[in-house]
Amino acid sequence: MKILLVAINAKYIHSNPAVYSLLANAGEAKSHIEIAEYTINNYSDDILADIYKKAPDIIAMSCYVWNINLIKTLLPELKKVLPKADIWLGGPEVSYYPEMIMNEYPEVKGVMKGEGENTFAELANLYVKEDDNLKASKKLSQVRGLVVRKDNGSLEYTGVREESDFKDYKFLYEDLANFDNRIIYYESSRGCPFHCAYCLSAEDNKLRFKDIDKVFEELQFFLDNKVKQVKFIDRTFNSSSKHAMAVWQYILDNDNGITNFHFEVEADILSADELNLLAKMRPGLVQLEAGVQSTNKRSLEAINRHADIDKIAKNVKIIKDFGNIHIHLDLIAGLPFEDLESFKKSFDDVYKMAADNLQLGFLKLLKGTPIYEKTDEYEILYKKNANYEVLSTKWLKYKDILRLKDVEKVLEIYYNSGQFKNSISYLEGFFDSPFEIYSKLGDYYEKQGQFLKHSRIQNYEIIRAFVRDNNICDGEIFDELLTLDLYLRENMKKRPDFAKEMIVQKGKNVHVEVFGRDIIKLVKEGINDKTATAYKFDYENRSPLTNEAFLSKEKLGTER
């Protein structure tokens, strides 16, 4: 008996903690189980062939919004080439409306509803002990938490499985052989106390925590193995201040100088004690992500968020002033009661918080979420197939969505990349609002037909052309700021056309540039001191947060 757990990830660097947790907690059936991981960039024919060659008796597929379309493509073909294999599905894309996909795809033997560890363990052990699909199928009704296709084709729901004791689950990672150059996902709690209407955790408000000593033991495994990044998938990590403080204190006390830990938090409920502890972290030890989503009060009420926007802004500023933590903020376009003008304000409000990364996302109508049930009331049109992204609402038209899509693209290039920090900061003084910069830059990209993948230098050249074509600011100053931004990130082998031929010194790990003014005084103080000034870029000493070269002023006249 061979059971194949199939995970199809969005990117190679991702892993699927769900299938590893199912394997770790499978009990006696564990020796009969194998994991097969692919990505959505693999051809479906290649995945089909690989699964066939593994010759499984049972195929269990982990279904999410990013892979469900590919899985649907595979289902009919898998049954053709492996007709005796039972196909099982689990995960959020099938768990809430299992009958829907089972009626559409008769190849599916059954769906595991909800949390899967105990359900899968019982199911897998039933198959292994019977070692005969026909015998096993007669006993499937005994396994709680399943929707099963009976021999006559009808569907049977075996009943609700009682919620498990999360703290008893086994550790996912026995070894890290399969995780080189991949993100490690870790879960120290399940559930969420909040009820955001667009989130699958809206109805799962019972928080369950692992024993803190077990968390410490598992974190130490990552630290001992010098894992590059551990990404916590707890829905709201600081929902329990006691738990958050204990974990943060542990990673502070046991820092290995390498591992970075990523946490999703509610920024407005960060306490003074939590902030004081975060202030002590090594630069790069911790990074935080916080959802703001909107600053429109009516929109926030409609999605059951009760965030204190002023407190978010205050705490983000405190964290930024620490200078040791990368912080990422999220916005969602397409929320109820948010038209284009309202979204512009939300964008500007959050942009002014000066996070390291501002993620502009679009509402997704996920099955099982409260907002999914209100699509008619809000006149929401969305994509039929995954990712179910909003196309329009009562307040936001499709043309507005397209405009925001252009804003999203240039925001990724010119803000979130971190490659244009000083150039963009300078441009902000010549526009009425931050949104206007990216809106007009997006329009420029669209009109010029520039929405293609470009090299780093090409992106510099495009924004330079945008500034000059629209006569936005002093072109000479802007060229020097582009040069500053470029060399902060990379010791370029080929000098860009917009940089002056004024190199004082260049080496493998150092570059000295002479600017026509004190460029850093201009950046930090806004003073245009037209005194030729040399700055050294030291690439051996980079910022652990931004990866920028260490910058220092050099005396002129020391050229080599």
How much helix, percentage-wise, in residues?
25-40%
Mean pLDDT: 93
Task: List unreliable stretches of 5+ residues.
Answer: none
Q: How far is it from the N-terminal to the C-terminal residue, by CA?
A: 72 Å
CATH-level-2 architecture of the largest domain: Alpha-Beta Horseshoe
Q: Rg to the nearest angstrom?
A: 27 Å
Shape, principal axes of CA atoms: globular
The biggest beta sheet is recorded as: 7 strands, mixed
Domain count: the total is: 4
How much of the sequence is in beta strands? 15-25%
Number of helix segments?
A: 19
Number of strands: 21
Question: Quick gist of this model?
Answer:
The chain is α/β, with parallel strands linked by helices. It has helices at residues 17-24, 44-54, 68-81, 92-95, 98-104, 117-130, 133-139, 212-224, 241-253, 272-278, 297-302, 309-322, 340-351, 398-416, 421-427, 434-448, 456-469, 475-489, 519-525, and strands spanning 3-9, 33-39, 58-62, 86-90, 108-112, 146-149, 155-157, 184-186, 189-190, 208-209, 229-232, 260-265, 286-293, 326-333, 357-362, 381-382, 390-392, 503-506, 510-515, 533-542, 549-554.
Overview of the structural elements:
By secondary structure, this protein is α/β, with parallel strands linked by helices. It has 19 helices and 21 strands. The strands form five sheets. Strands 2-1-3-4-5-6-7 form a seven-stranded mixed sheet, sandwiched between helices. Strand 14, helix 13 (340-351) and strand 15 form a beta-alpha-beta unit. The longest helix is centred in the last third of the chain and has 19 residues, at 398-416.
